[in-house]
């Protein structure tokens, strides 16, 4: 009895210690988000009183309507813009990248590995390096301050090509393609009808990666856009936050706007949970 | 396209000819399909990557010579390495480079160790509610960088922040945006945003470690900690390298967080990091060749350091195998 308890006690202790450490880490990641949620329900005076748990002056609805009315409803515009850039951009980008990764895996051509090396090198190149030349190119064709100046560059996702190649190796067996060829199916028809279906989970993973990246995108829109009506949420909130130091009525609006801007990605991750895990694994194990 | 038909088959007689033709046409069809699948991406690669990188290099060697008083046509002249010399002797650029170096030295080890430790703890099997804990830790990654910076800016701001308030009640006053604290404050924002994401990568890699290996070490009498550090950690080395590499590439581009914080603290100037220097040179001072030279230098640093990280880790792996 006593011998058993001495074996158990240290285990119980370390078990408690492990759970405490993980618990602290969870609090570290959750509390700021919780603060955002609570702060969004405060009016301006309560926001500055620091007493975040006092729910007596609950003005969530008021803040929401203020947000939507601010500067002639710009926020709604930014929201639609962000959704367009991110959802349409990520979907198109995933299709383009995975198709290319699939071709890298299934077909042979000259200098294939050299071209693939170039794709991998592109993953490393900082956004800030490309922004100025892209701005100059866009201004040459008159695309600065248009939707396309932001939309076209975000379609480029070299990491998606890398993932596409790995997924193609893993999900699409060569025998299936051989069988389709014997049946006389065209290559592209096979890709669209057979391979793409097998690549489905990989496609969703690449989509999620790019969705996050575009939703986060800040540098490029900042360089390209000056018309507020084309701003994505990130740039719009940045601008409102800079106005807040002069006119404090922007504070509650920035807080509420930040809260709403977080929701689509959380929804996407919760809905598509089982896909992103497989994508992270594919990237890490290779 | 190369044809790889073997001589033996071509000499096999008349029967082989239609088969060869069929094979040839298959090859042609494959080539066509391959081109169709790759073209959209290769066009993007050219427009969004190759031409811009080329343009940046080109711009860094040329400069617009403004004629006197700003009248008359501008002329572009070759200036050789003048822009590079200007950037490399500019104390604000070197200061930014040094700052990012310090940032990397604090942030990358902290991130890799914390994320790996959490993944090992979760993998030990004693954590309750493992799936929920993972989801909670991952949550900040769904928060865009600019919004993470806004949240933390408010949490750093006296008067709004419950954290500063709480510390004040305990007679501790910290200015989170002071001279010595602003960099750790930025590290904290980045750590908060990416900790869970990297933890999930490590956790996924740990899940791929064969269970027999773990069981064998437990049978050999290795404790939990020894199994984690000496058995599991070496087996997920490739994931560690990947996380370190991506963290490094992102850290060198440091822009969003200091840009937002600079709205509220005088400790961050407009050339605080190399990326901010590039933005300032290009779009505030309109000095494209200076911005391009700084971009190329940042690019070279990124390539050299990434190469160094992968090189260093492959060499240490070879030594470990020996």
UniProtKB/TrEMBL annotation, chain A:
Which parts of the chain are coiled coil? none
Record's keyword annotation contains Heme: no
One Pfam family in the UniProt entry: BPD_transp_1
Q: Name one GO biological process term.
A: transmembrane transport
> A Gene Ontology CC term for this entry?
plasma membrane
Transmembrane parts of this sequence: 12-38, 83-104, 116-135, 147-164, 203-225, 250-272
The way it spans or sits in the membrane comes to:
Multi-pass membrane protein
Tell me where it resides: Cell membrane
* Record carries keyword Cell membrane: yes
Question: Known Gene3D superfamilies for this protein?
Answer: MetI-like (1.10.3720.10)
* Occurrences of domain ABC transmembrane type-1 (ranges): 79-272
Q: Which UniProt keywords apply?
A: Cell membrane, Membrane, Transmembrane, Transmembrane helix, Transport
Similarity comment: family membership: Belongs to the binding-protein-dependent transport system permease family.
Which named protein is this? Carbohydrate ABC transporter permease
Highest classification ranks of the organism: Bacteria, Bacillati, Actinomycetota, Actinomycetes, Kitasatosporales
UniProtKB/TrEMBL annotation, chain B:
**Single GO cellular component annotation?**
plasma membrane
Which positions, given as ranges, span the membrane?
A: 33-61, 100-123, 135-155, 235-255, 288-309
> Domain ABC transmembrane type-1, which positions?
97-309
Pfam families, A to Z = BPD_transp_1 (PF00528)
Q: Which stretches are tagged as biased composition: Low complexity? A: 1-19
Q: What is its main location?
A: membrane
| Residue segments, region Disordered | 1-21
- A single GO BP: transmembrane transport
Compartment annotation = Cell membrane
The record's listing under Gene3D superfamilies reads: MetI-like
| Sorted UniProt keywords | Cell membrane, Membrane, Transmembrane, Transmembrane helix, Transport
InterPro entries according to UniProt = ABC_transporter_permease (IPR051393), MetI-like (IPR000515), MetI-like_sf (IPR035906)
Q: How does it sit in the membrane?
A: Multi-pass membrane protein
Q: Which family does it belong to?
A: Belongs to the binding-protein-dependent transport system permease family.
Q: What is this protein called?
A: Sugar ABC transporter permease
- What is the scientific name of the source organism? Streptomyces coryli
């Amino acid at each position: 009895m006593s011998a058993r308890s001495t074996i158990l006690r240290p285990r119980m202790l370390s078990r408690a210690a492990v759970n405490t450490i993980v618990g602290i880490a969870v609090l570290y990641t959750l509390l700021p988000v919780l603060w955002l949620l609570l702060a969004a329900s405060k009016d301006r005076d309560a926001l500055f009183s620091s007493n975040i748990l006092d729910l007596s002056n609950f003005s969530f609805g008021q803040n929401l309507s203020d947000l939507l009315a601010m500067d002639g409803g710009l926020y709604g515009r930014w929201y639609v813009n962000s959704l367009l850039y991110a959802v349409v951009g990520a979907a198109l980008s995933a299709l383009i990248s995975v198709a290319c990764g699939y071709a890298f895996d299934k077909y042979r051509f000259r200098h294939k590995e050299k071209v693939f090396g170039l794709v991998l090198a592109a993953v490393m190149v900082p956004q800030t390096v490309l922004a100025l030349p892209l701005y100059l190119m866009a201004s040459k064709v008159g695309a600065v301050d248009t939707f396309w100046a932001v939309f076209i560059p975000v379609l480029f996702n070299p990491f998606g090509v890398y993932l596409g190649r790995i997924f193609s190796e893993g999900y699409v067996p060569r025998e299936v393609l051989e069988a389709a060829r014997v049946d006389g199916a065209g290559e592209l028809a096979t890709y669209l009808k057979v391979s793409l279906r097998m690549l489905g989970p990989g496609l969703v993973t690449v989509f999620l990666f790019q969705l996050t990246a575009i939703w986060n995108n800040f540098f490029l829109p900042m360089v390209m856009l000056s018309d507020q009506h084309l701003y994505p949420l990130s740039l719009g909130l940045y601008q409102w936050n800079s106005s807040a130091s002069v006119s404090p009525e922007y504070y509650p609006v920035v807080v509420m706007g930040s809260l709403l801007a977080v929701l689509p990605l959380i929804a996407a991750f919760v809905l598509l949970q089982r896909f992103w895990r497989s994508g992270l694994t594919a990237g890490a194990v290779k | 396209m190369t044809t790889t038909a073997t001589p033996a088959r071509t000499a096999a007689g008349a029967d082989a000819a239609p088969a060869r033709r069929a094979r040839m046409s298959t090859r042609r069809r494959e080539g066509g399909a391959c081109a169709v699948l790759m073209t959209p991406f290769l066009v993007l690669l050219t427009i969004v990557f190759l031409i811009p990188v080329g343009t940046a290099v080109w711009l860094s060697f040329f400069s617009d010579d403004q004629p006197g008083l700003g009248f008359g046509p501008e002329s572009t002249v070759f200036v050789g390495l003048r822009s590079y010399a200007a950037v490399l002797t500019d104390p604000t650029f070197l200061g930014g480079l040094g700052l990012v170096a310090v940032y990397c030295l604090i942030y990358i080890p902290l991130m890799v160790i914390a994320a790996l430790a959490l993944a090992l703890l979760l993998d030990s099997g004693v954590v309750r509610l493992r799936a929920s804990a993972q989801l909670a830790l991952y949550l900040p990654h769904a928060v865009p960088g600019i919004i993470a910076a806004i949240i933390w800016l408010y949490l750093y701001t006296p008067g709004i922040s419950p954290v500063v308030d709480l510390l004040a009640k305990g007679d501790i006053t910290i200015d989170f945006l002071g001279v010595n604290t602003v960099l750790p404050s930025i590290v904290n924002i980045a750590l908060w945003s990416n900790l869970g994401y990297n933890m999930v990568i490590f956790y996924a890699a740990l899940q791929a470690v064969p269970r027999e290996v773990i069981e064998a070490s437990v049978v050999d009498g290795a404790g939990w900690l020894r199994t984690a550090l000496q058995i599991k950690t070496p087996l997920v080395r490739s994931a560690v390298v990947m996380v370190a590499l991506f963290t490094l590439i992102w850290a060198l581009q440091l822009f969003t967080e200091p840009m937002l914080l600079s709205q509220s603290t005088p400790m961050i100037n407009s050339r605080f990091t190399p990326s901010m220097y590039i933005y300032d040179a290009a779009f505030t001072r309109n000095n494209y060749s200076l911005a391009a030279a700084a971009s190329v230098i940042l690019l070279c640093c990124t390539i050299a350091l990434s190469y160094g990280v992968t090189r260093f880790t492959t060499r240490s792996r070879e030594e470990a195998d020996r």
